[in-house]
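Pilot study result, target chain (302 residues):
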Amino acid sequence: MSGPERIAEARQLLLDHVDRATTGPLDDPAVVAAVVGVERLVVATRSTEASVLRQALEGRLSARDAPRADLKRVVELVAEAVNHVVAGLVRREEGLPADAAVVNADAGGYEITTEATLLRAAVRAAQRSIDAMPYYGARYGARGSRFATTDSAWLVSLASLDEAAAVRQVEWLARVLAGRGMPSWLLEIHLDELVREVQSAAGSGAVGALPAAAAALAASRRRHVDDELIDDADTWAVEALGVALPVARAGALMAAAVADARLGVTRDDTALLDWLTDGERVTEGVASRLHEVHRRIVDRAR
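Predicted structure:
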């Protein structure tokens, strides 16, 4: 099959799935990529209407059709979806399985859920977690969105484990992400969102060990930084910087990073703090005030 033929087939496969009717296990990597691509558009357009999703895929979506959508982002997601389905078609031809690499080439070939309903829930949870925390986009951009999707689809696969095993796996991921500047508190939020989405889509029995994993992260964090300090840190940062704040919820992020350092999840909190105070992005005055807020958090943390 030629390149243009694959692109045409990829576009048609995406259009075939705008009704979001496919259920059950998926063994075709191209279909997995199509289901993920369409669901990312659901979040971006804030619509489950097949007609709206079709217009997005065909490049005909307008602000009238999806008034709350970022149309530029929709166009980007359509291009990504087509590329991912093309990669899935290649994997299908080569007899390769559906794994994380289908929708995120940088992720590698680790296992993700391929049950259609759970996969959609995982995508929604990932995208909504990203939308709720502008830090992801500011620091990691589209690459961060792709990793959030595959991480979320992997996390769903932990639901069937016993609680102790699921907690160990989540704690491992928390260490990896925290070392890259994403405090465990963000994974805690993501898991809460994932539990809500899975429960809504597949019932309370489908969440399995996920609530226990989320609760374990929260309990560990609260040993040093409770919810009140998370909120207070946000207030301090806004009072100190106002509109000069480099990213929303910077105070909470700093508090969460302090918790990780106190717990030994990370050696220190510089992966986050250095980014927030980077002189190439913020003025010396902003950096100084952020450091003052950070010191206040450290003094208050247990």
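One observation from the pilot: The chain has a mean pLDDT of 95. A full batch analysis is planned for the follow-on phase.
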